[in-house]
Write a structure and sequence with these properties.
Blueprint: E1 3-6, E2 8-11, E3 14-22, H1 39-64, H2 71-85, H3 87-90, H4 92-100, H5 104-120, H6 125-128, H7 131-145, E4 160-165, H8 170-174, E5 183-186, H9 194-202, E6 206-208, H10 213-216, E7 222-226, E8 231-234, H11 238-258, E9 275-280, H12 286-291, E10 297-301, H13 315-328, E11 333-337, H14 367-372, H15 374-387, E12 392-397, H16 403-422, E13 432-437, H17 440-444, H18 447-452, E14 455-458, H19 460-468, H20 486-502, E15 506-508, H21 519-524, E16 529-532, H22 534-545, H23 549-559, H24 565-575
Parallel strand pairs: 3-4, 4-5, 5-6, 9-10, 9-16, 10-11, 11-12, 12-13, 13-14, 14-15
Antiparallel strand pairs: 1-8, 2-6, 3-7, 7-8
Helix pairs in contact: 1-2, 1-7, 2-7, 4-5, 5-7, 13-15, 15-16, 23-24
The structure holds phosphoenolpyruvate and magnesium ion.
């Protein structure tokens, strides 16, 4: 039966393909009774799965013991092997199967939940966090029990693989960069959550906040994602399917036409240059950046280098990553943002990551975390500074609000420089240091920012989150997310104007910069530096080359005086006609 689910549009485009259900955090497994005479076969099935995982872990241990592998990796594999051999995981589920005549998956998850509860009561935070290892071991055994989950053979050659999940963390989503995924949908999440942002960077259609996709969609269902409309169509009827196939090929054609703009000068009709920079998460994104001819990197979200690993990237590893980006951009600006961890972005290896903050978005995030963990911060600063010898690197500091934070940060940068001078490492002594304007307090009291920093970048995602008091990741309040709220427009335009007065360049690197419907508005506010996902650059360039900056300045000046949100919205729409 065909049905349609509506959610939040986070990454446009159309994907048509087979659904693949993935579990995250809560392991959802079927529960069924096995017949008396099948109990011993069920136990054997469980034993076989445990044996498979044991072999996998032995192979991993072999790899982890190779010279050059981080020592933590071997230790991590050892912990998993130990847990697997613990009778609590390898024996007790068998008793459950016998006593309750239930399937092996369910018995294992029941046992896991008991164990996790016990871990939760442990006071020692290191030991308490080992519960994640228990979950990971159980996930491995479940995978083995379920056999090779994906029946790839069923997929037709024109069909995409569509991930359907209850929720995905930014760390889960970033792993899609190495897989061929056609698109994804989730039940939870907000449109500017980092999961959504990563989806846009993958340039795959995605819809979040669907509420019921995970329970309603079945493995291998034929589905269509309409990313621009925020719609998921399950088992479409043949006419709808045909229409979407047509629309998909039209979109592909439009996209390939846009490629002609790659080498065109990014300037308005009246000759104002508008720099179009790219946002990246990992060094591998550079390929896409080059494909669209971006003017540089406006935001390198370095925290993604710290995710999905049992250890921290050391100074050399970070240095190599930053250097590779600087070299690839061959003299064009590369803006490296220091670690913005916390909020919805977590990295298990960072100290304090086990702490459940009462309100993570308002907690020890970004520069607050870095100032509280000076060794981690200094390591990153040294790595960035060393890489600055190989290109035009600029340092960007996230989530500043207080003058004292600016002072402390500048002092730490000086300390990192002094350490490098002592060890005779080369770096750019005049490296430019900038600050993100993403907390309303910063936008309202710009004095210390324009005095002490050399450039500013408006992080509109957080600026909107904190000004309108809506959690970016919570789909329940997603309808209140509004870049055109008069308060937001005022904060943005004031910041751009203050930068122009004080001769401090201002960029926008939040998602607003990549929305072609807002390009003219921002140009009219005086913005000349946009930073967005590479996949959006050509669409925005198309808007830039059709704009008249002088006319827009006048129109936007008038529009900003409006207080009525409806009239304001209408006028913004008129800019695009
Ligand atoms: C922002 O807040 O707008 C921004 C660019 O940073 P992030 O999305 O990584 O928080
Ligand atoms: Mg931000």
């Amino acid at each position: 039966m065909s049905f349609t689910l509506h959610g939040l549009a986070v990454s446009s485009g159309i994907a048509i393909g087979r659904a693949h259900l993935v579990s995250h955090a809560t392991l959802e497994v079927a529960h069924y009774k096995v017949r008396e005479k099948s109990v011993s076969a069920e136990i054997e099935r469980f034993e076989a799965a445990v044996a498979t995982v044991r072999t996998e872990l032995e192979a991993l241990h072999g790899e982890a013991s190779q010279p050059g592998s981080p020592s933590e990796l071997a230790a991590f594999v050892d912990i998993h092997a130990m847990l697997l051999d613990d009778p609590l995981l390898s024996e007790l589920p068998k008793e459950l199967i016998r006593e309750r005549r239930c399937n092996a998956e369910w018995a294992l998850v029941q046992q896991m939940e008991l164990l996790v509860e016990q871990f939760d009561e442990i006071e020692d935070s290191y030991l308490r966090e080992r519960k994640h290892d228990v979950v990971q071991v159980v996930e491995r055994v479940l995978k083995a029990l379920m056999g090779k989950a994906r029946k790839v053979a069923k997929r037709g050659k024109d069909e995409d693989l569509i991930i359907v999940a209850h929720d995905l963390s930014p760390a889960d989503t970033i792993q899609f960069k190495n897989l061929k995924i056609g698109g994804f949908v989730t039940d939870l999440g907000g449109a500017t959550s980092h999961t959504a942002i990563v989806a846009r960077s993958l340039a795959i259609p995605a819809v979040v906040g669907l509420h019921h996709a995970r329970p309603l969609v079945r493995e291998d269902d034929l589905v269509i994602i309409d990313g621009a409309r925020g719609v998921l169509i399950v088992e479409p009827d043949p006419r709808v399917l045909e229409e979407y196939r047509l629309r998909k090929s039209e979109l592909e054609l439009e996209r390939s036409k846009l490629k002609r703009l790659k080498t065109a000068r990014s300037a308005t009709l009246d000759g104002e240059d508008v720099a179009l920079y790219a946002n990246i998460e990992l060094p591998q994104d550079i390929e896409q950046v080059k494909d669209v001819g971006a003017d540089g990197i406006g935001l390198f979200r370095t925290e993604f280098l710290f995710m999905n690993r049992p250890d921290l990237p050391d100074e050399n590893e970070q240095y190599e990553a930053y250097k590779s980006v600087a070299k690839a951009m061959a003299g064009r600006p590369v803006t490296i943002r220091t670690l913005d961890i916390g909020g919805d972005k977590n990295a298990g290896a960072l100290s304090g990551s086990e702490r459940q903050a009462p309100n993570p978005a308002l907690g020890l995030r970004a520069i607050r975390y870095c100032l509280a963990e000076p060794q981690i911060f200094l390591t990153q600063l040294r790595a960035i500074l060393r890489a600055s010898h190989y290109g035009k690197i600029r340092l960007l500091i996230p989530m500043l609000a207080h003058a004292s934070e600016i002072e402390q940060t500048l002092a730490m940068i000086e300390q990192a420089k002094a350490q490098l001078r002592e060890t005779r490492h080369k770096f750019d002594e005049n490296i430019k240091i900038g600050g993100m304007i993403e907390i309303p307090a910063a936008a309202l009291a710009l004095g210390p920012f324009v005095k002490r920093l050399q450039f500013l970048s408006l992080g509109t995602n957080d600026l909107i989150q904190y000004t309108l008091a809506i959690d970016r990741t919570d789909e329940a309040v997603a309808h209140l997310y509004d870049p055109l709220h008069p308060a937001i427009l005022r904060l943005i335009s004031q910041t751009i104007a203050a930068g122009a007065r004080m001769d401090v360049p201002v960029a926008v690197c939040g998602e607003m910069a990549g929305d072609p419907n807002l390009t003219r508005l921002l140009i009219g506010m005086g913005l000349r530096q946009f930073s967005m996902h590479p996949s959006l650059i050509l669409e925005v360039k198309q808007q830039v080359v059709m704009s008249d900056a002088e006319q827009l300045t006048m129109k936007v000046g008038r529009l900003l005086r409006l207080d009525d949100p409806e009239k304001l919205r209408e006028q913004v729409e008129r800019l695009n006609i």
